[in-house]
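# step 3/5: fold
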Amino acid sequence: VPQPQYGLYAWPSAVVLAQYLWFHRAGLPGRRVLEIGAGVSLPGLVAAKCGAEVTLSDSEELPQCLENCRRSCLMNNLPHVPVIGLTWGRVSPELLSLAPVDIILGSDVFFEPKDFEDILTTVYYLMEKNPHAQFWTTYQVRSADWSIEALLCKWKLKNIHVPLQSFNADKEHLAGSSLPGRHTIEMMIISLANSDGT
């Protein structure tokens, strides 16, 4: 049973998002990428290995998760990847000083419904810095009752569902992991509602 610090585990959604990044690796060199709620940082590390300029982040209130991000970088020969503390929904010096990003990554950040609006508040702030930015997110379907549709509307965001088979992530075993096949994982790309998506 997971402990309260969820970021110390590799979740199936992270494997699926890493697969999406690998599938689209040709478009990553030079792109500015921020992973939020990075935890073990699998998607962010894949993006960095593919040539993106990556920053990893997790809650400033979870030093163990931030240390985990740093260890993951060192273990993957990526000591130059910055790790910063960002708490969803909170304006902090780290958030304010962050350069505009092209892609925001989040695997299984939509875990606790109480966090959903804080996540989208942070994403919206980042997208205001670069209106063409996109939020690539994967999540495990845990309840048919939760939805972010109303919050997307409130924050003037739109989403596109990305079928897993479109990037070969609908397999029982993915990247040598049996994790994805046992769970219902979804992916969506979120952007500003008035953005042309480029």
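# step 4/5: annotate
The helical segments are 12-23, 42-49, 63-75, 93-97, 116-129, 149-154.
# step 5/5: archive (pending)
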